[in-house]
From TrEMBL, chain A:
One of its GO terms (molecular function) is ATP binding. It is a peripheral membrane protein. It comes from Zhongshania aquimaris. It is found in: Cell inner membrane. The lineage of its organism: Bacteria, Pseudomonadati, Pseudomonadota, Gammaproteobacteria, Cellvibrionales. Its EC number is 7.4.2.9. This is ABC-type dipeptide transporter. It comes from the Bacteria. Belongs to the ABC transporter superfamily. Keywords: ATP-binding, Cell membrane, Membrane, Nucleotide-binding, Transport. It catalyses: a dipeptide(out) + ATP + H2O = a dipeptide(in) + ADP + phosphate + H(+). It is an enzyme of class 7 (translocase).
From TrEMBL, chain B:
The chain crosses the membrane at residues 35-56, 230-253, 265-287, 348-373, 402-420. Belongs to the binding-protein-dependent transport system permease family. Residues 226-420 form the ABC transmembrane type-1 domain. Keywords: Membrane, Peptide transport, Protein transport, Transmembrane, Transmembrane helix, Transport. Pfam families: BPD_transp_1 (PF00528). This is ABC transporter permease. Its main location: membrane. It is found in: Cell membrane. InterPro entries: BP-dependent_transpt_permease, MetI-like. PANTHER family: OLIGOPEPTIDE TRANSPORT SYSTEM PERMEASE PROTEIN AMID (PTHR43386:SF24), OLIGOPEPTIDE TRANSPORT SYSTEM PERMEASE PROTEIN APPC (PTHR43386). It comes from the Bacteria. PROSITE patterns: ABC_TM1 (PS50928).
TrEMBL record, chain C:
CDD domains: TM_PBP2. Residues 94-300 form the ABC transmembrane type-1 domain. This is ABC transporter permease. The chain crosses the membrane at residues 9-30, 94-118, 130-156, 168-192, 243-263, 283-303. Pfam families: BPD_transp_1 (PF00528), BPD_transp_1_N (PF19300). It comes from the Bacteria. Coiled coil: none annotated. It is a multi-pass membrane protein.
Amino acid sequence: MSLLKLRSLQVSIGPVKAVRDVSLSLEAGECRALVGESGCGKSVTAMTLLGLMPNAAKISAEEWWFAGRDMTQIKEREWRQLQGNQIAMIFQNPMTALDPTQTIGAQIAEPLRIHKGLSRREAKMRAIALLERLAIANPAQRAEQYPFEFSGGMLQRAMIAMAVVCEPELLIADEPTTALDVTVQAEVLSLLQEMRESSGTAMLFITHDLGVVAEIADSVSVMYAGQTVESGSLHDVFSREAHPYTQALKRAVPSLENPKPLEAIAGTPPDLRQPPSGCGFAARCSKRMAICEESPPLMSCGEDHLARCWLWHKDHPERWREAEAVSLLGGKL
Amino acid sequence: MAISVFRFAPKTWGAADDLEAVAPIPLPSMANPTVILSGLMVIFLLLFVTVGPSLWRQSPSQQWLSQISEGASRARSVRIVSDNGAWRPSKKADAPSGLKVHAANTEYVRLQWPKLAGIERYRVYRGDADKPGLGLAITETADSYYQDRLQLSSEVYRYTIADADTGLLLLSREVRPEAAMSVFEAQLQGLIPVTNNKTQWVEIPGHPLGTDALGRDILARLMAGGRTSLFVGVVAPLLFITFGCIFGAIAGLMGGWVDQLAMRFVDFVVALPFLLFMILFRVAFGIGPGENGIMPLIVAMLVLSWPGSARLIRGQVLALRSQPFVEASRIAGVSTSRIILRHMLPNVLPMILVAFSFAIPQAIFTEAFLSFIGMGVSPPTTSWGALCNEGIKTLLSHPRQLILPAIFISLSVLAFNILGDALRDATDRRSGVVRA
Amino acid sequence: MLSFIARRLLSGVITIWFIATATFFAMHAVPGDPLTQEKAMSPAVRAQLEARYGLDKPLFEQYRLFMSNMLHGDFGISFTQENRRVNDIISKHFPISATLGIAAVLIALVGGVAAGSVAAYCRNRWPDRLVMVAVIAAISVPGFVIAGLAQLVIVAMNNAAGKTLLPVAGWGSVSQIWVPALVLGLGTMAYLSRIMRASMLEVLSADYNIAAKAKGVHGWRLFWHHQLRNAVLPVVTELGPTIAAITTGGFVVELIFAIPGLGRYFVQAVQQLDYTVIMGTTVFYGAFLVLVVVLVDISYGLIDPRIRLHRGRA
């Protein structure tokens, strides 16, 4: 059974329908990238998965399972036991996500004190050991320092330490390298990868950087205007992209091997206060059809490869032709 | 901030004439009903103290001896009674059978009662008719008559006669004194000619808010006091902010050691304990006959309050000096005075306005505080704070005399504060002036 | 850190010198002198008195004498209360003012922080509205009016109860401290709660607050460890001016509640032009305030590590 299974999540904050239809699933130890442009609902999805949305937000899902628990029925107190313990998060900007008035060591030790009931001393020892594993020199001394005394890359390592200290089953990383210098990005990424692999933690990696995705992820989900529009393995999504949005996204990324003029995606994403009734991408799509006035469901376009696009409907002419070709070749494709 | 950097840039690079254009000074947003209300309140207060006295023509210093600490009253006619001092019932009159009232007006109540056998001394009590109990024991006498002249007003009293030795209650009667005024006071107020003591009735004006402990009309005093309070509240900030701005601008524009020295001096002035020095300077600048105390107050505030705006303006000038659009103008050969007038002034003016609007309630408060402790304006000049000072003495018996001027102080402080808030919000939105 | 404290203390000493000098000359600018206020006296007696108080010397000589006496901690003898040393007046009456002031600061600080936090937590709901209306009222109504109204309320309460629940004025018992202290601290409390509300709102939407929640930190632990310490910083910066405002604002409360504090003596001394008492109290208050500002700066460093460490290195 999957570690996380989420079907048709919807979140609205006041008039804004920030997340309209997100389906995700993660196996234990898997790293899934959640890709999309800013404002498409990635961060809201992450916050919802952590139970951090304000009470004013309206959340509903057809199905939501985490580690064998039905999350649609979960109570506030149970959430608190999950947060930081079984689900942890790495924030985008380590400069603002660490409490300026607490020492780094105390902040890393805090989840241990809350969830594992360790003594102050013991928790601090573990925090120091973890800092050492994250290649921070003089960890004992560093643990006594305050966030303003750390550089950005170091802070993000402290942030990682804070997230993995209780060995959670799911780690959500919300653009963990965006706020960092390019030179330390790779370093932080490889550390993250290393920590994840050694503890077998599953990770939901939120980013808009396709290069990072290729480096770190096993599978990819693409989001657009509050919906997951495509999901599949890294290879499926990157080399057999099925949704026109994913295709457009790829054309907008520079490539060294295959230098072509970059194409920006024309138009702007829809206003999520009044989302379109049909396909969210239709207004900007070059392959728009009449049926796109209706909202497409997720459709299979390969093994474990889904796309929210009418092109992949079994009644679409091209699918007919494919089916014909397959039968002609005797199913050898 | 990015917007403010380039706000003037296109003009800087345009034809010389374009430089004449300046950014308009932001006005407070008038959409907020609270702001409209406080604006109306300010207008009302200003009208109250300026136009008010010509509509309500009572003198704020006229004392009505017959109307000490009275409640609200209408214009009415009162009886004029001659003031004969001591009184005794005429021998001819028979001893009454019960408690007899010979006269009852607000100048005197004359009582007579039968001599009762075996009682040597009588005690007379006076109490409010609508309250239980005997009230105040006003005298003990061996006579069987008494004239009560103790602070009478037109309400119903109950007089009780008791045996002073045993405390046995003998007689009781309710009396309502008629509104009256002595000949002496009527002549003093000019209501009747000095030669005339025949007039029976005279018209006297009402007091919509009552009178104070010296029988002066509170409404008229509120108008007169408000004039002082608002005058000090507006003029003092005007002066000290102007001075502070000039000081700060010079420091900021000169820079270097002049700036350093100037700011050190500002630090020292800021360190002076404000109220202590207000009191000290207030005394130092004006003790003498005929001083009303307003000028010393304003001078003391000027001496002590300018550093705030000096710091503000200096910071702004320093920040603006290094702004790209100012540097660009300088490279383009625009003269210094033109840069100050065209680029710096429009940018700091809104801040000065905001500082000014917040300084007004502060100054009103300071004036009220000093007048309250008797270190502000000197009598006969009055202010809301001075009125509070008078009012607190009669607080327990007549709280109105404190509360009325207090309401005016609070309303004006509140209204100016809300206007200041609105002005600041409007300024913050409109101009991205660099925060120092 | 030590050099920082040393520098602050040095500038404090210069400030006190400035205060003393300003007081001296402001006072001597007052027309007349303490002796002219007395009843007519013979020239011989007057000369004798002038000699006693040093008023016969030139102004600069008087200034020099005053300064050297002050350096030895001696403020001289009162003009109007004969044979009473200014030092005695201060040491007798300042502790009373200080007690009142400390109680007021504590009430203002605790009340302001609590009210501001509650308002921020309940943003735009009724507790927030209530706090904000109370804040506006407390800021707009002068302290002496609040003091008067408080007395009215106490009297009404005592009358209704038929016995003395609370004393209306005076000094000496604990029940006589907290009403004047509350009155004195009310305006400051309002001001602080406004600052606290704004900074708490900022903290509540800060990344580190969300990050702490993501770690599973909730409830009181979240409030104490993460929110309060950050939100209280702007309040602490305001503490210096606040204490200054409260100590001097104490004058009026002392007058109204008949508390024998130093403020009352100062007002009296100014009215009677009692040179030595004016000088003594002003310099003493000035020194006290300078000290308070330095202490507040240091305590700010203790709460905010950024300042503590930066200044320590400087």
